Amino acid sequence: MRLEVEITGKAFKNAAGGTQDVLAPIKFSLGDGEVGVLIGPSGCGKSTMLRIILGLDPDFQGTVARPPNARIGMVFQEPRLLPWRSVEQNVRLAAPAVSDAKLSELFRILELEAHRSHYPGELSLGLARRVALARAFAVEPDILVLDEPLASLDDALSGRLRDEIATLVASRPVMTLLVTHSLDDAVRLGDRLFFLSPRPARIVAEVPIGTPRDARGEAEIAAIKAGLARRAQGDRAERDVS
Ligand SMILES: Nc1ncnc2c1ncn2[C@@H]1O[C@H](COP(=O)(O)OP(=O)(O)OP(=O)(O)O)[C@@H](O)[C@H]1O
Ligand SMILES: [Mg+2]
After folding, report:
1. Which of 53, 55, 77, 160 has the most crowded Cβ, counting Cβ within 10 A?
2. How does pLDDT run across 198-241, given as a tens digit for each residue?
3. Cβ(22)–Cβ(87) under 8 Å?
4. What is the set of domains in the chain, with CATH numbers?
5. Could you tell which of 48, 59, 74 is best to mutate to test the pocket of ligand 1, judged by most ligand atoms within 8 Å of the CB?
């Protein structure tokens, strides 16, 4: 199974009646078990691209081929929980087939046990994000799309959740698309990193990470990050002189 993305353009109409190009031509594909990471400046079109890939926005040029009947787990940039449903009900509504054991495991991993019966209005943003993660995982997705899922969590918790995402991805053949502004998360979780330009977004660099995720040691992670930072510096220098 593969996810094939070939977007040739996307524009929004603005209030003044003009149009604003948000996506330039973008082409990539993802296979089972692969984690693609999208990294790009704020406002370049990442969330727009994810909505198109999930089929939530049909108004674009190009094609997106998702595997037929793929189950989708999605963590939106805003947690988007139903305010009149408890934490547990929010997860169960999205994943009616989830077993009690699986639900308990997810709540334990995401440290949500004490919040099962709370309502979204009673949660901090970080807690709400964890509920959104529980909901996406409970679906046992074939395609997992995560739009900055670790934002607004403290370092220790975001590190633990990042490891849990890695465990989930290793446990079943799921294709994952992750948006992050953290190079550290990108290098620890990603198999291929896609660096995007400012709006309209296009892929300016695609960086594969050859070593399997569970074999990446701290020294290698640091070396990859340093290489990417040098590369970004080089790109900036090139832009400055041209
Ligand atoms: N429904 C909409 N109507 C008009 N313009 C929109 C709409 N949604 C997004 N935009 C514009 O499209 C551009 C890309 O937005 P998008 O949310 O995809 O960016 P992003 O890369 O996800 O940014 P961030 O990193 O801040 O989340 C922005 O200029 C935004 O204002
Ligand atoms: Mg966004």
Report:
1. 53
2. 999 999 999 999 999 989 999 999 999 999 888 877 777 777 76
3. no
4. 2-71+141-241 (3.40.50.300), 81-140 (no CATH)
5. 48
